[in-house]
Design brief:
Elements: H1 2-12, E1 15-20, E2 24-29, E3 33-39, E4 42-45, E5 48-52, H2 54-57, E6 68-70, E7 73-74, E8 77-78, H3 81-95, E9 105-110, H4 116-128, E10 133-138, H5 139-146, E11 157-162, E12 167-173, E13 176-183, H6 187-202, E14 204-205, H7 208-218, E15 229-236, E16 242-248, H8 249-272, H9 276-285, E17 287-290, H10 299-307, E18 311-313, H11 320-331
Parallel strand pairs: 1-9, 9-10, 11-17, 17-18
Antiparallel strand pairs: 1-2, 2-3, 4-5, 4-6, 7-8, 11-12, 12-13, 14-15, 15-16
Helix pairs in contact: 3-4, 5-11, 6-7, 6-8
Length: 340
């Protein structure tokens, strides 16, 4: 009987958790799990949407003159309100069942360091995209819940979430954030460093997709047991002709070092602000690293070398924040306390 009532009520209301990331958007539907994972990219022709998500990303750097591929989220915050609204509407429509009779309630993860104006922009975009109610959760808290940290315990937990636009570092205890730092230096900044390196050292012009491929294939934060190399195709800066060069993982690691130091400094700064009682917990519990940046080879070794703490890479780092929004919807009944 209870299951029938629950199913019936689901026709009228449903809850969605969204990780509105700079690089990717993930959508979690309560009782279903993650149902969508697509790039935060929109292809526009004038003021008309041509494509969203995977299809739009394939157009990056390849569009004809009258079509522009836009990434509406920059450094973790909304850079283009109207395009973000269109993207959210597309994703919500894509995952919503036609049987639903009411608009969804949405929980959105946001960087811990955004301003009140930026918070309002996120809420307004979600409402305009069709939400019935909108609540926000800070990304480091969502990531910590998503990776399974005991955030409600009276003990220190530390999470480092290296996303596309921001790196979120936080110490969490008793269900709240004791101290957090949001650094607008993450995966996109690493890609930009590779683009700059290829231009200045090899006189080769490459795009975002190629830079990301280099980072994934041979990028590293710490010396590798066996160094890697790959061929990169691009356009010669001088002649303008297509050109191929061979690059090694050592030079890419050097190109990434400045941005990686910024991330490590954010971790050290957060540890400096950690209360002594909680710092003692971290000696045993260590630090959990999530987000796409957790997949960079040797990132755990780099952070360990600088902090001397145990470093744990999340089991599914790319899904941590979305899973956290979902677990909050599943387990925390107070998320939508104020009825609309």
């Amino acid at each position: 009987m209870f299951s029938l009532l629950k199913k019936f009520s689901g026709l009228f209301s449903y809850d969605i958790g969204i990780d509105l990331g700079t690089a990717n958007t993930l959508v979690y539907i309560k009782d279903q799990g993650i149902v969508l994972r697509e790039p935060s990219v929109v292809a526009m022709k004038g003021d008309k949407v041509k494509a969203v998500g995977d299809e739009a990303k394939r157009m990056l750097g390849r569009t004809p003159g009258d079509v522009v591929a836009i990434r509406p989220i920059k450094d973790g915050v909304i850079a283009d309100f109207n395009v973000t609204e269109e993207m959210l509407r597309h994703f919500i429509t894509k995952v919503s069942s036609m049987k639903r009779l009411r608009r969804p309630r949405i929980l959105i993860a946001i960087p811990s360091g955004i301003t009140e104006v930026e918070r309002r922009a996120v809420e307004d975009s979600a409402y305009q995209a069709g939400a019935r109610a909108v609540r926000l959760i800070k990304e480091p808290m969502a990531a910590a819940i998503g990776v399974g940290l005991p955030v409600d315990d009276a003990a220190g937990n530390m999470i480092v979430d290296i996303g596309g636009g921001t790196t979120e570092v936080a110490i969490i205890s008793l269900g709240g954030i004791v101290y957090s730092r949001s650094e607008r230096c993450a995966g996109d900044a690493l890609d930009e460093s590779i683009i700059h390196h290829m231009q200045t050292v090899h006189n080769l012009l490459i795009g975002e997709r190629t830079a990301e491929e280099i980072k994934v294939r041979i990028g590293s934060a710490h010396p590798l047991p066996k160094e890697l190399q790959m061929e990169v195709k691009g356009r010669d800066r001088g002649s303008g002709l297509p050109k191929t060069v061979t690059i090694r993982s050592e030079e890419i690691r050097e190109a990434l070092s400045e941005k990686l130091n910024t991330i490590v400094n954010a971790v050290r700064h957060t540890l400096d602000r950690c209360p002594p009682e909680l710092a003692a917990d971290l000696v045993d519990r260590g630090i959990v690293v999530a987000g796409g940046g957790a997949l960079l080879r040797g990132i755990d070794q780099l952070i360990h070398a600088e902090t001397h703490l145990p470093i744990h890479i999340a089991e599914d780092p790319l899904s941590a924040v979305a899973e956290g929004t979902g677990k909050s919807l599943q387990e925390r009944e107070t998320v939508f306390q104020e009825e609309d």
